[in-house]
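Narrative of accomplishments. A recurring question from our advisory board has been how the design workflow behaves on a single, concrete structure rather than in aggregate. To address it, we present the structure tokens for one chain from the evaluation set, followed by the sequence designed for it. No filtering or post-editing was applied between the two.
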């Protein structure tokens, strides 16, 4: 009996008309903070013992009624021993630290979600721009058709585990200063299921699942990026004991394009001009995502100049609009000249003046000219 003789309702912090659920909740909260393995307070052990004693009395209808009518004296005369716990109160005590599934609940057979499946597909850049549908094959576990997922040979049923008696867990009782403490562990004989299969299914070897090849049509959205994944819900490996199937994650790889390079939603390419073509101007074929188009390059096109094709880039994934295509002009200078070519160039060089290489107007100059 607690030497302080404190009121049990006061110790748990509940009113005298509190129901069983309120008393249990209050005890769990206090036990989490006052247990000597958790609290560093010097009086934690004594306070914890008082709380356990209070809960033991108030959680039992007979003991609570005796306490409500006659107080601590009534318990003493009734032969109450505060350090003797039954299995029910010990279950609540351990649940305060480890959750409700410590004593038996976790060991019961329960369904579990199946594992996810990873698959891959490869696309051309033009396919990623347009969006495509692809058949994706992958191996997946499914419930065994022979035993319907039970793992037992048809006509037979799993039997209760002899080691744990079908409970799925084993309990070890140890006596301490606070009474009997029970430690629960998963049964090694059945792995916590509580059942064993005496005659396993021949097709699945008792696992309840088999592997089969499956193929799904995957819709790849336009504008998808290299390395992104597409999730297909509920098409992965089958769950255990009827649990939900996992998901399929399809990773998209985009092959490099020899003529086009993607940066974000923009597309980049280059065209080569000779020195004379850049000076005189030329129509050139430019590769795009929709095929080759003609681009007019005006006379005097400079090396490194970039032409922008608006709206010719990648579609915005799950959005609106498209990026642009940027065309880089590369002007080639001849490496080898004949004598006649050299003479012609030298003749050209003697005829040039300041106006020949006069740079174009800048943006602000053009703006001023427009207003003029």
């Amino acid at each position: 009996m607690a030497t302080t003789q404190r009121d049990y309702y006061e110790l748990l912090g509940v009113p005298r008309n509190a129901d069983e659920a309120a008393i249990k909740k209050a005890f769990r909260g206090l036990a989490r903070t006052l247990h000597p393995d958790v609290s560093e307070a010097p009086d934690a052990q004594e306070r914890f013992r008082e709380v356990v004693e209070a809960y033991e009395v108030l959680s039992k209808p007979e003991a609570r009624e005796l306490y409500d009518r006659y107080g601590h004296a009534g318990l003493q005369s009734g032969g109450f021993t505060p350090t003797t716990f039954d299995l029910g109160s010990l279950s609540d005590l351990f649940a305060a630290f480890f959750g409700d599934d410590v004593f038996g609940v976790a060991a019961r057979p329960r369904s579990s979600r199946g594992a996810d499946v990873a698959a891959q597909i490869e696309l051309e850049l033009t396919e990623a721009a347009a969006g495509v549908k692809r058949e994706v094959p992958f191996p997946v576990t499914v419930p065994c058709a022979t035993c319907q997922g039970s793992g037992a040979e048809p006509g037979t049923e799993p039997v209760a585990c002899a080691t744990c008696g079908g409970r799925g867990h084993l309990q070890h009782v140890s006596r301490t200063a606070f009474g009997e403490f029970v430690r629960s562990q998963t049964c090694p004989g059945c792995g916590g299921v509580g059942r064993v299969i005496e005659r396993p299914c021949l097709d699945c070897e008792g696992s309840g699942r088999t592997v089969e090849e499956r193929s799904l049509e995957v819709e790849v959205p336009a504008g998808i990026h290299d390395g992104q994944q597409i999730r297909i819900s509920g098409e992965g490996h089958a769950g255990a004991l009827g649990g939900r199937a996992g998901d399929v994650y399809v990773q998209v790889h985009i092959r490099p394009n020899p003529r086009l390079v993607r940066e974000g939603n923009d597309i980049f390419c280059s065209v080569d001009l000779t020195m004379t073509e850049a000076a005189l101007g030329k129509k050139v074929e430019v590769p795009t995502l929709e095929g080759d188009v003609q681009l007019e390059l005006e006379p005097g096109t400079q090396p490194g100049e970039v032409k922008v094709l608006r709206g010719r880039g990648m579609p915005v994934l799950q959005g609106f609009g498209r990026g642009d295509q940027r065309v880089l002009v590369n002007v080639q200078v001849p490496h080898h000249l004949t004598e006649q070519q050299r003479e012609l160039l030298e003749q050209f060089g003697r005829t040039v003046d300041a106006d020949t290489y006069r740079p174009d107007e800048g943006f602000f100059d053009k703006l001023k000219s427009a207003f003029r």
